[in-house]
Amino acid sequence: MCRSGISPNPTSSCVLYYNATHMITLLDLPRSLREACGLELIAAVAPTDPYPVAEPKGAKRFKLLQSIPPDEKKYHERVRQLLEDALKEARRYLGDRPWCYDRHVTCDDETGQVPQGQKKGERYPDVTCQPRAYPSSSNREALVKTDQVGAEDCATKDLREIFIDLTASSATTAGDLTMPPVILSPLANHVCFNSNLHNACIHNPNTDAVRLHVEGRIYHIPACSTFILSTVVSGMRAFNSALRTLPRNISNGPGKFKFDLILLDPPWPNRSVRHSLQYNTIKNPLLQTIPIISSTLSCAGHVAIWITNKRSVRLLALQALFRIGLTLIAEIIWLKITTRGEPVTPLDGLWRKPWEVCLLLHRHEVTMRSESFFGDVEEQELYPPVPQHIVLSVPTTHSQKPHLSPLLTPFLQPPYTALELFARNLTSGWWSWGDQVLQFMEQQQTY
How far does CA 4 lie from the centroid of its chain? Predict the structure, then answer.
């Protein structure tokens, strides 16, 4: 039975408040990430006041408002009203209490401030993707080297300590498309060079997090997690090979690994991101991912995709996903707030809105529709009247979003299989794939 109020055990839950219908949730963002990966992540300073922003005024604002299509204007007004109501409801419950838990913080925050002497873009030192040759399957023993037990197949046996050296097998035979996954030991795992991780599938089968040593840095790999540090294009071979060799979810039968959830946080083109140099953007990231979604999503699976508030981005996402048999069933709207429960920017802002939207879609058809791949989306389908779940949370580091697992319970009953594309951190039990997938998993980002 749903009820309102604080969660039964607030010390172990990221949810500070939810209403009777679970359509409004106040969530602690760093705590949601901790519960997802099993590790405590260091967070950015929680904003106490709204961000300073410059918005158009007078005739310029009037002209900009006139340029917004009526359906988009109506949608934004509906969202603004929902957010105002959600804030009022949460404020009645909280009173003068803070809107987030205490944090272990870094020096900089969402405003873009960085420590003295440090440049933008150096905030999170991390391994970066570089192209490398694929080793052939005949040289599997060269992929994984052990300290004391010799060259044994680590896919079937726990090893005391693994030393990964992919450089020794840089040549690939003609027509050899296999890229065996690397299985991590319960103890420390060592990588000779950070470039050796690129484009390989790394799997932790252990029920606890393990350490991965890379050139003097230590990364924490959550329990039962799998990751590929690469772009979508470069990691395709390792992904397909891992699908064939790693344990499969029984519900889809032998040899048919499917995901019940595919989460995407694409690097959509964005002016503020380009200026901050936080990550590279892609003009149309879905061109790379649609074949993956179409072939690996289960017949009744869900896709969750974060989009920007630009109409063109929403249109592009819905066009692509509708064409592979997906239906929009809900939206998750994340409102960024201060520790006092104020929106970080004005709710009626035109240049910068304080909310982001995640579209939740469900597959009802196994086969693709007959229309052209990127056919037109009918105008009435762009902003359909679907349920809108409001999430209130105080933001942390740039590009980190609340983990959605607590909000997906009505749609996905555990255990379920999940794949996150364009991932910037790891989740226990999930597959994560992205060229910044270890960004927040370094030891200095945890404690």
Answer: 28
Alpha-helix runs per DSSP H in 51-184: 58-66, 70-94, 140-143
* Residues pairing with 361 in the sheet: 303, 328
**Residue-wise pLDDT tens digits, 257-272:** 799 999 999 998 865 5
Q: Tell me the β-bridge partners of 214.
A: 191, 217
And the tokens for 45?
A: 């300073």
| E strand residue ranges, 179-235 | 182-183, 189-191, 201-203, 210-214, 217-221, 226-229
Distance between CA 27 and CA 42 in Å, rounded? 17
For the chain, the 3-state helix, strand and coil shares in percent, each to the nearest 5, are 25, 25, 50
Q: What is the CA radius of gyration of the chain?
A: 22
Q: Is residue 252 classed exposed, middle or buried when 0-12, 13-18 and 19+ CB atoms within 10 A define those classes? A: middle
Task: Write the pLDDT tens digit of every residue in 179-232.
Answer: 788 999 998 898 877 777 899 999 999 999 999 998 888 899 999 999 999 999
User: What tokens were used for 370?
Assistant: 């007959």
- For the purposes of burial, counting CB atoms within 10 Å of the CB of 23, is it exposed (0-12), middle (13-18) or buried (19 or more)? middle
190 contacts 179 by C-beta, under 8 angstroms: no
Reference 441, options 202, 162, 120; nearest CA is: 202
Task: Report helix angle 286-296 to 311-322, nearest 10.
Answer: 30
Q: Is the dihedral of CA 384, 389, 392, 393 positive or negative?
A: negative
